[in-house]
Amino acid sequence: MSRLLQSSRQCLSRLSTGSLFAPRRQPQLLLRPLSSSYQPRRQLLTLAIETSCDDTCVAILEKDSAGAARLLFNEKVTSDNRTFQGIHPIEALHSHAQNLAPLVRKALRALPEAETETETEVDSSSQGSHGEFLLIDGCRRQKPTFVSATRGPGMRSNLAVGLNLAKGLALGWDVPLLAVNHMQAHALTPRLVSALEHKRSSEGPRDPQFPFLSLLVSGGHTILVRSNSLTDHTILADASSIAIGDMLDKCARVIVPAEILSARGSDASMYGPLLEEFAFPGSGSGSGSSSAQSPDHDHEYNYNYTPPAARGEEIRPFESGHGWTLRPPHFGSGRAAAAEYEFAGLQGQVQKLLLERPDMDVEMRRVLAQATMKLGFEHLTSRLMFALQDHEKHAGSEMESKIRTVVLSGGVASNKFLRHVVRRVLDVRGYADIEVVAPPVSLCTDNAAMIAWTGMEMYENGWRSHLDVWTLRKWPLDPDADGGGILGAEGWYRAPITGQ
Ligand code: AMP
Ligand code: ZN
To answer: pTM here?
Structure first.
């Protein structure tokens, strides 16, 4: 038992001077401010866990009453996928089991110091929750207001590792649990970015405002989502076969000359960036830029790109002028087509072409790389155009329902040519006033910061999760989907709205 004065700074110095070993006194857990000027801070603090796939992620996020957020911790450990050349569920599960608790322990050290000006007696030999604060390595730290964790969609046993630890923490700390939808978290990421940049006047609405469109383009997804409100997200288009990232990776393996590929090692995540770098040398591409919130202002690289001014131009084959053509994906027709992305056909054409012409020279391969991206990205924008036109038709002229923002997220969103294509197509098709934003890549790939932010927005809107909630392998975003979307899952309950 020891006497511990309030601040962690003092705590740290006391740890080093050995004054923790002061005379024993009866411990009391007091949180009585000594100074009359003491004002309790109205801030929210959450610890968040994400384990839906192969990344073990933990974050700590703080948000003040003015709406500004601070990311105090955001780390991940990715399971070693080399043995199986891809994600293996059991490997990923082992990795979560091994890495999650140590990562949470590391994160706890990033919690803000407890600030109350009190003299408090605690049992410093124990770690854990002491009323309103935690004792971490002998130092008083603020206790999270609530714990957030991914509940689904994802691999159930993997999700369970994170959700169960989150329940344990919520129980131990006696704070609420927020069991979050992973895809909702991806959709809300640009709002996290604006809170981190504090891009809002205290009375104004958060950016981007609802409704906004997001293109989630990654190795596993190609989804166009309209986010109508915090809990109402409509999937407007989805991949019918493979995801665009997968298509680009597989095309890169056959297009990029073997000597360049072998010089770059065997990291599976390099193919997309490598294809871009090969297609547009010197464009500063493939760097996975981490500060790409405003792609409109990327440095000017001359892509020599003419956007399709009408739908008819989008579905025209690419003529190389050297005896080969590439047909753009334009799966079916009508409304059903507008809801589908189809990349397997484009990939098949590229692979067949290089089987027939294995000796294609470097310059022609470069043209092929550019054409593959052009057709793939214009396929993305084609559904975006349908969505914007459809929205205009049905939403009427009310200002609050106008779409002002298109968000590009997921690993493929780091492709600068994609951002260029989206911007140019919007401009030429009458949507020059729509802003295109791309959150930093580190926040687009799986991470716990987005889970923390989603927990934050749900918490502020009065949502809490019961401690008996279980993982969900599938959990559609759309309220019209089977199961009723985010709020259709059982286990939510309401608390007073804090509305920050
Ligand atoms: P994610 O699934 O979100 O982790 O993103 C990984 C996918 O993004 C992989 O398919 C990568 O090849 C792809 N990717 C990353 N950077 C780029 C880039 N600059 N151009 C095209 N694809 C990329
Ligand atoms: Zn994800």
So the answer is: 0.83
